[in-house]
Design a protein that fits this description.
Elements: H1 2-23, E1 26-28, E2 35-37, H2 42-58, H3 67-82, E3 94-98, E4 106-109, E5 113-117, H4 118-121, H5 127-142, H6 145-166, H7 172-206, H8 212-223, H9 228-231, H10 237-252
Parallel strand pairs: 3-5
Antiparallel strand pairs: 1-2, 4-5
Helix pairs in contact: 1-6, 3-5, 3-7, 5-7, 5-8, 6-7, 7-10, 8-10
């Protein structure tokens, strides 16, 4: 009984410390003004992104060797940044094309490094469609989604660890990571919908046709059979179309 009581006391202490740590990680988003629970400052996000970018690129065959292709994506990306609120953010945006011609994907790492694979780029027909993809990924950066997920991951691992201590299971780290991944997928889908809204906003602000983002959804839907990796963390393209149409109407009136 003493051992059980001791474990419970330790578990309660872990829970209280974990909750205090999570709720003390409150920052105001420098662009949106929204209160968020995040683990990193914008400066730390930038440094983490710069350090992780080479490794992320290597996982997709490295950067594409065609300088003209790279320059085109950088030009569209810089246009999106310079003509929108992103220019007033603390983030250092840069845009890269990955050599992988099979994987249909695009992603952002914290701080502003944004990547699109040749597999996706080859399926896009216009600059407007490319702008839709890049604007969406910019939304992840501005929304600080990675920093939010890191804070939530710390919370989940702490709580799962406390449960393991209380039950005498000291191998709870694996369980904690599993739970964190499941919740991350759920929250990640919500983040994707928010980033669609950002993408439309930035397309309108930079003079691109936001309806092109609907065409991107069609491309993703067509590719979903072979794009399991992309679809595992993104909501169904069909489920996103209604919200995109709503965002187009909203930002065109502003």
């Amino acid at each position: 009984m003493r051992k059980i009581a001791g474990r419970l006391i330790i578990a309660v202490g872990i829970i209280l410390f974990t909750l205090y740590s999570y709720f003390s990680k409150t920052q105001i988003n420098p662009v949106t003004g929204e209160k968020q629970r995040v683990s990193l400052t914008p400066e730390e996000e930038i440094q983490l992104g710069l350090k992780s970018a080479p490794q992320m690129a290597a996982e997709f065959g490295g950067l594409h060797s065609d300088r003209q292709v790279q320059d085109k994506i950088k030009t569209i990306g810089k246009n999106l940044v310079s003509k929108t609120e992103a220019a007033r953010s603390p983030y250092q945006f840069d845009f890269h094309v990955l050599a992988d011609a099979k994987t249909v994907n695009a992603f952002a790492v914290p701080g502003g490094q944004i990547f699109i694979t040749m597999g996706l780029l080859n399926k896009l027909k216009t600059d407007d469609e490319i702008a839709g993809v890049l604007g969406h990924e910019m939304g992840h950066v501005i929304g600080r989604h990675s920093a939010e997920q890191m804070a939530k991951g710390d919370l989940l691992e702490g709580l799962a660890g406390a449960a393991g201590v209380a039950g005498g299971d000291y191998t709870s780290a694996q369980t904690a990571r599993y739970i964190a991944r499941l919740v991350d997928l759920s929250y990640g889908r919500s983040d994707e919908l928010e980033s669609d809204d950002f993408g439309v906003k930035y397309m309108v602000g930079a003079g691109y046709k936001p309806e092109a983002l609907l065409r991107v959804m069609a491309v993703l839907a067509e590719s979903s059979g072979s794009g399991a990796e992309f679809m595992s963390t993104h909501p169904s393209p069909a489920n996103r179309e209604e919200k995109i149409k709503g965002a187009i109407e909203k930002y065109r009136k502003m």
